[in-house]
Design brief:
This protein is an alpha/beta fold and about 200 residues long. Helices cover about 45% and strands about 20% of the residues. Helix 1 (about 20-30) crosses helix 7 (about 175-195) and helix 5 packs antiparallel against helix 6 (about 145-160). Bound molecules: guanosine-5'-monophosphate. Guanosine-5'-monophosphate binds near residues 43 and 85.
Length: about 200
């Protein structure tokens, strides 16, 4: 593949439980050469999650210090915890010509729209709120309070889909993954032709 001067920033976003994590993992398994930006969060690790792989797990104090120093490209309070994208990590990869993928919430994606107008914003939509609720329950990682907070937030997040460049309906994981892969590859190919 010819090397481009600057990578493309892809933002995968949508409500919690829409399946964006699963789709992102399939994308990375099947498409070579993408860089994933590991976010910082103040929430506690779930079982099996590893520091520096799933997230950088940090204290509120460390998060606030980093935010005050302007180290985040975007940050947001999501379901009562802070999450942020480290600007330096993203900048370094894009400058090396690598395409970067962020998997972040809707507020974060909309801030990226202002900070990086060339970013490609992809909304992953669940087939319905009922389905979303079933998936979150099956995942079993949330307390009942967290679950209802996530569902309430999902209703507002769904209304933001029209602000994205693309919406992928995750009615079937394999089909949605194929659509995501085709989308990423089409951007990569068109940038290839231009450079
Ligand atoms: P979870 O706690 O389930 O891992 O993530 C909760 C939500 O925060 C998900 O929608 C996830 O995509 C989002 N998120 C993860 N990292 C970031 C980030 O760096 N910035 C923002 N704005 N949201 C994030």
């Amino acid at each position: 593949m010819a090397r481009r001067n600057r990578g493309i920033l892809f933002v995968i976003s949508g409500p919690s439980g829409a399946g964006k994590g699963t789709l992102r993992k399939i994308l990375f398994d099947r498409v070579p050469g993408l860089a994933y930006s590991v976010s910082c969060t103040t929430r506690h690790p779930r079982e099996g999650e590893r520091d520096g792989i799933d997230y950088w797990f940090v204290t509120e104090e460390a998060f606030n210090r980093a935010r005050d120093r302007g180290e985040f490209l975007e940050w947001a309070l999501v379901h009562d915890h802070h999450y942020g994208t480290r600007a330096e990590d993203v900048r370094r990869e894009l400058e090396r010509g690598r395409d970067v993928v962020l998997e972040i919430d809707v507020q974060g994606a909309l801030s990226i729209r202002d900070a990086c107008p060339d970013a490609v914003l992809i909304f992953i939509a669940p087939p319905s709120v009922d389905e979303l609720s079933d998936r979150l329950r099956e995942r079993g990682t949330e307390t009942p309070e967290d679950l209802s907070l996530r569902l309430r937030n999902a209703m507002t997040e769904m209304e933001m889909a029209s602000k994205y460049d693309h919406v992928i309906l995750n009615d079937n994981v394999e089909r949605a993954a194929e659509e995501l892969i085709a989308l990423v590859e089409s951007y990569r190919n068109s940038k290839e032709v231009q450079s």
